Amino acid sequence: MSGLVALCVLTALSLALGYANKARCTGPEFDEWGRSEPAYQERAYGDVCYSDIQNLWIGRDIDRHVFPYVHGGIEPDGSLYGGVVEYPVLSGVLMWAGAFFVDTDAGFLAASALLMAPFGLATAWWLGRLSGWRALLWALSPPLVLYAFHNWDLPVVACAVAAVFLVHRWTSVSLRRRATVAAVVLGLGFALKIYPALFVLPLALYVLTSGKERWDMRGALQVVGASIATAVVVNVPFMIAGFGGWLASFEFQSRRQVDISTNSIWYWGFRDWTGSADFQSAMGLVSPLLMLLSFAVACVVGWLRYERCGTYPWIPVSAAMLVGFLLLHKVHSPQYTLWLLPFFVLVRVRWGWIAAYLVADLAMGISIFRWLYLNMMGEPSGIHDGFTAQALMIGVWGRAALLVGLFIVFLKSRSTVDSPGDERVLPGRPAPRLQEA
To answer: Looking at the record, which segments are called Disordered (predicted)?
Structure first.
């Protein structure tokens, strides 16, 4: 217990540092809309203290305390109005709640940090219960400082980790019931930031194959049904209250172009093509198809491991599916590293992979804003003009190469939450030899 308390204290210190870093961009003066002055944008990029939380105070009617989705929609040019935000409904409600009692972007950042910090602490507690000292990777990691309050991601990360905790540590009830409740939590995660829905299929396959003599088809269907039902129950009230506003958040993402704001391999690899309508249209098809292919490969490899070892590796498969999403989706925002970080705790990956990824991410997370600052100020920013652009390319392509490797590594690795006997050898199969990859 004392170790878990210490873990949470260290997490709290990292969260405090993360807030202090973002708060450097606030004040000391404010204009009539509550926007920080002077030179807000230049400071945000140049001092590397930008956050979406502070930035979106203006432009989404958050500053006007408009309840999201109900009265809004999307313009033909893709801009949102009437309180609609570009995130699923629970994130929208969280944003509205953070703005309720404040009238400046500084207050919005502080209130949002207070709302989300408990989710970061809960994540630390659950990871500590699941994987022991490896949870320090969450508590003391640079991404937690850089991105904890960059966007509204701590609640959705908590949902993903809570699902794993329920399945593997709530042992007083049957696996089917544990997994069903975990699926409900993943459904809530979908209503926050979509990506936890990826983990429903691996979880269902884990339940399906958990029977010693026959497949648990009913349990697997129950898992899928619980996650879908949860997502529907959460979304339906918003659909009824304002269908156009609810739909606009999804339409905004579907229309999103591959540009500098997406920060994905598709932008950095095809910058000269991004002005083409044909290219943008192709990306709307190529990116999701490749993601689906990566999901299918991960699930199939997981099934082959099940046939060899007797247990479906749902956590490593979930990690690989997330890697496929991060690598191939047309948007790769900096704070997405928070999504991946718990899997470095939950899967036995060699430390070299983790250290290399954190270094590449740090290079990208700092240099992208310095590069934007140079462009904003009209200063030279090419690859031959200084270390900023060089560090950015090291970060972007180093991270991409590591994601390719991690896709394979995760699928070869064991989970840190496995208990003795979790992997049983099927008759006629060789004993498993799974190690840290």
So the answer is: 417-437
* 43 and 63 together in one domain: no
Is the overall model pTM greater than 0.90, yes or no? yes
Number of domains forming the structure of the chain: 3
Using CA atoms, how far apart are residues 34 and 64, in angstroms rounded to an integer?
10
pLDDT in tens, 306-322: 999 889 999 999 999 99
Coil, strand or helix at 72: coil
Structure tokens at 355: 């250290």
Sign of CA pseudo-dihedral 115, 118, 119, 121: positive
Q: Which spans in 347-425 are helix H?
A: 351-376, 387-412
User: Residue 172 is encoded by which pair of tokens?
Assistant: 């007083």
- Asked if residues 212 and 236 have their Cβ atoms less than 8 Å apart, the reply is no
Residue 415 backbone phi and psi in degrees, to 5: -80, 150
Nearest to 389 by CA among 374, 376, 408, 399: 374
Per the CB < 8 A criterion, the answer to whether 175 and 207 are in contact is yes
**Could you tell me what percent of the chain has a pLDDT over 70?**
95
DSSP 149-205: TTSS-HHHHHHHHHHHHHHHH-TTS-HHHHHHHHHHHHHHHHHHHSGGGGGHHHHHH
pLDDT at 422 over 70: no
Containing structural domain, residue 332: 256-437
Q: Is 210 exposed, middle or buried (0-12, 13-18, 19+ CB in 10 A)?
A: middle
Q: Which stretch of DSSP H or E encloses residue 30?
A: strand 29-30
